[in-house]
Amino acid sequence: MAHQSTPEDLTLHGVRVLGFPTADRVASRYRVSLASVAELLLDFEAMGWARQSSFADLSGWSLTDSGRQENERRLAAELDRTGSRPTVVVAHTRFLPMNSRLSNACTDWQVRPTRLDPLALNDHTDWRWDERVLRSLADLDDAFRSVCDQLSGCLARFDVYADLYSAARRKAEAGQRAWVDASDRDSCHLVWMQFHEDLLATLGLPRGSDT
What we know:
This protein has 2 domains: 73 residues, Winged helix-like DNA-binding domain superfamily/Winged helix DNA-binding domain (Arc Repressor Mutant, subunit A), CATH 1.10.10.10; 120 residues, no CATH class. By secondary structure, it is mainly alpha-helical. The protein is built from 8 helices and 2 strands; from the N terminus they run αααββααααα. 63% of the residues lie in helices and 6% in strands.
């Protein structure tokens, strides 16, 4: 049976993975009660591991340097306790080629070179170009789900990513194009980035070290 991380670990980890989330967002993603998440975040703030901040009309939580260290310490202990490290290492290795393909697809979604401007923004008027990108995203679906299934077989918190990615991709294919790369919803790109951050944190690797 897959290991279920504790609410404490999920709350601390969720702040890192989700990137400036509200307590409600952490609770919703990891299926922990909002009251528990809110109380834990205040505890983590008192410990110097998390801080809440606001700018403009946005408010959310982030980890301090000591909070990131504590997060990685807990994740490493969880890997050792469950014997999951070899599985996560293999899954990370399988993921890297997919990550390059996803990165290329998202670049093509945002940039469509022209003869005069190789960095011209994609204005999404060339449906053939956009359909090619959407096919690339679809081609990644099964392989991504396979990696997620491998991970969620030992660590249950990885069980959400594949369904979120597939749901976003289907919405994009149905004409809701913002679901490819928007940052205000669980788009294909955002879910993928969160999964990658989850892997990096779990293995204690700095971002950019595996590209």
